[in-house]
Amino acid sequence: MKQFFALIVFSIFLIQTSHSCTNLIVGKKASADGSVMCTYNCDGFGFAGSLFHTPGGRHTPGEPIAIHGWGPSHEGQYVEQVEYTMGVVGFMNERQVTIVESTFDGRLELQNRDGLLDYFSLIRLALQRSSTAREAIRCMAELMEKYGYNSTGESITVCDPNEAWIMEVVGKGPGRKGAVWVALRIPDDCISAHANLSRIRQFPLEKKKAKKGERKSVSSRNLQFINSPEVECVYAADVVSFAREKGYFSGKDEEFSFRDAYCPIDFENVRYADARIWSFFRHHRSDMDPYLPYINGEFDKCNALPLWVKPEKPLTLKDLQQDMRDHFEGTPLDMSADMSAGPWGMPIRPLPMHMKTSDGTDLFRERPIATQQSGFTMVCQMRSWLPDDVGGVTWFNCDDANMVAYVPLYCCLTQVPDPFRPENNQRNEFSFESAFWVNNWVANMVYPRYSMMIGDLRQAQRELEDYYIADQDSVLAAIAKLTPDDRRDYLNKKSIDYASRMMQRWNNLAKYLIVKYNDQVVKRVDENGNFQRWGYDTPGYGQKFLDAIPAATGERYKLKEVIERRER
């Protein structure tokens, strides 16, 4: 109980900081190796990312578990324990079930602060109690109905080795227990995503008999049928009627759109949220530019992105890792391509999101998938053809996805590697034992002189990730000869070794960068990467930035007389 209590205390902090996350989702026939994959950038200033572990086990059914939701009114409230719980590492359990999220807020008047379960508590409980994605959806629906839901609007990715689902949830407001929600199964050959904006619009409503080719749907009155393979949509029985009651919808039932009723769009939430989805889709389809008017707020021309698309070729694990590092490169929103990127093409921007010029002009900044305020990032891989303990891998690290190397951690872990442990990642105390702070140490050296320094970081990143990916063949060969207990022990040690390798490489990278780029020049290196005894280069500003200087400064820096000192 104490361990669970600590997780829920952490959830209160996470709720306050992670309102800007990104999830990318890949069906098993859309991936190159048959994996179901999903991702999570957990973004929020002011917290240090880390990895949590909750052991599974047998319990006394009905035993009270303390839950701490929003504020002191929830002190001394409990949920009932179940007979058996799964072990959980991060956001994946020992059966490879993975649940991640992004917050869309939606209609804030629908938050019920008296509900017991926030979204993080809900996810953690479902991970402990579910062996499939469908069981997790049913578990969350029943928990919200029984105990109440107190967060704002939430998009939730629910995956297992065979299926990927999107579930969207919003409360019913003060004094109304439970939530309205809908969950859709993503086609196996498609990719999908969500990022702080509701994504589900129309969905199939329950019929006595579905036509051939139609998605079969059931309401929460018939949740016992959720495990039927033909069921691909599940929703709260009152999801439409509640919207009518509140005045959010007045059309025919079959026209009902969850997003339009519970999270109306405007330019700001589309540009900050769905622009990320558009860029992800654009990596894997060549026909996404017609949706650019939507990203630009021209809703009369286009008012939505598809919920999912079929990629032109299957995605690899490495593809998805690279997708998490996106700053709209190669698009009209490219964050490295204009004056705001500074002299070295820095693809990140400081807060605030809104700015005002001295003449009163309102400005905004882009919001990409990769961002400096990430507490942690992960790419989760679920493989149905392997034993669960090795089939489920969370490729994890703390801080900005663009600036770190993803480290493979297996879902059977019983011991979190030291660099990722919460006690080693304190938000107000730098530590060389902390993955969060060592990664930030490197990232914050690179950010200001991005185009000059990013190549050295990329080399270290590729070196580690290529090694980890290549090493998976030897891992699979090794575990084939081991008993389940020995296999778990081996995978624990492997994960610890991977994390240690990353920390050592990044520590060396930090020292290399400070020496190579000291005092705004670049020390020369030989073909082996070793520093030459003497000599340095002075790269100066990029040409695009140089060309912009006269427009901003007038005559100030114009050299009026050429002094040919070198010839004298």
Question: If you had to describe this structure to a student in words, what would you say it looks like?
Answer:
The structure is a single chain. This protein is of the alpha+beta class and 568 residues long. The chain contains 13 helices and 24 strands. The protein has helices spanning 2-17, 119-129, 133-147, 239-246, 258-262, 267-284, 292-295, 317-323, 388-391, 435-446, 450-479, 484-516, 543-553, and strands at residues 23-26, 36-43, 53-54, 57-58, 64-67, 77-80, 84-85, 88-89, 92-93, 98-105, 153-159, 164-171, 179-185, 191-194, 216-219, 231-235, 308-309, 354-356, 362-364, 374-382, 393-398, 407-410, 522-525, 531-537. The strands form seven sheets. Strands 17-14-1-2-20-21-22 form a seven-stranded antiparallel sheet. It has a six-stranded mixed sheet with strand order 10-11-12-13-16-15, covered by helices on one side. Helix 11 runs antiparallel to helix 12. The protein is globular, with a radius of gyration of 25 Å. The termini are far apart. The model is unreliable at 1-18 (pLDDT under 50).
